[in-house]
Amino acid sequence: AQKVTQAQTEISVVEKEDVTLDCVYETRDTTYYLFWYKQPPSGELVFLIRRNSFDEQNEISGRYSWNFQKSTSSFNFTITASQVVDSAVYFCALSPRKTSYDKVIFGPGTSLSVIP
Amino acid sequence: EAQVTQNPRYLITVTGKKLTVTCSQNMNHEYMSWYRQDPGLGLRQIYYSMNVEVTDKGDVPEGYKVSRKEKRNFPLILESPSPNQTSLYFCASSLSMASSYNSPLHFGNGTRLTVT
């Protein structure tokens, strides 16, 4: 089965705290892409990062970092020193490259609230 | 400006009254897709199109139709809307979904549909 699980439905943190959003995926494919998208309160969906299954190097972009571990099928997203503008729903997504290459499978999302 | 344009942003209609939500992209993308977003379920794919005149069902196609007569347009048609189609709808496009290539999805701003 191809599936993305985001077990944290809602998270609240106080501004400047670090927060990690979990993403666990399932796929039969050995080649796949993983994504994170952000949906701020205004509603649009914004692409954050893409990672392919052959590249397990962690990535850092400013206050954002991503930890990809094939051994645990996880692609977790950490925000360091969170800010109110980080308040949003975050979606993890999986794009298999062989069995269902025409699909992008989304997780249910994690709603993050950063309290000033 | 590269974008995916959906119209309308908000739509309230009654059961059984046919409606069309338009979607247009100006990036010459091959792949286009429709998703619906419901609380706790994330984004679920309704229909997608790999290219002109090539469309296929996603995970929740019942009650919807699509067409892809031109590369830039991918309208979503509800022939006889029902209250369970009340949802937030997103159109998305991507350069290509070929197995050897993957690019992120670019989303429209969403259409909030209410069927009474």
Short description:
The complex is a heterodimer of chains A (116) and B (116). Chain A has 116 residues and is an all-beta fold. Helices cover 0% and strands 53% of the residues of chain A.
Structure commentary:
The complex is a heterodimer of chains A (116) and B (116). Chain A has strands spanning 3-5, 10-14, 19-21, 24-26, 32-39, 46-52, 59-61, 64-69, 74-79, 88-96, 105-106, 110-115. By secondary structure, chain A is mainly β. With 116 residues, chain B is an all-beta fold. In chain B, 0% of the residues lie in helices and 49% in strands. Chain B has strands at 4-7, 10-13, 19-25, 31-38, 42-51, 54-57, 65-66, 76-78, 87-94, 106-107, 111-115. In chain B, strands 2, 4, 5, 6, 9, 10 and 11 form a seven-stranded mixed sheet that branches. In chain B, strands 1-3-8-7 form a four-stranded antiparallel sheet, with no helix packed on it. Chain B is globular. The model of chain B has no long low-confidence stretch (mean pLDDT 92). The chains are: A mainly beta (116), B mainly beta (116). Chain A binds chain B through residues 4, 6, 9, 33, 35, 37, 43-47, 50, 52, 91, 95, 97-98, 101-104, 106-109, and chain B through 31, 33, 35, 40-45, 48, 50, 56, 58, 88, 90, 92, 97-100, 102-107, 109-110.
Distance between the termini of chain A: 40 Å
Radius of gyration of chain A (CA) equals: 14 Å
Tally of DSSP helical segments of chain A = 0
> Multimeric state of these chains?
heterodimer
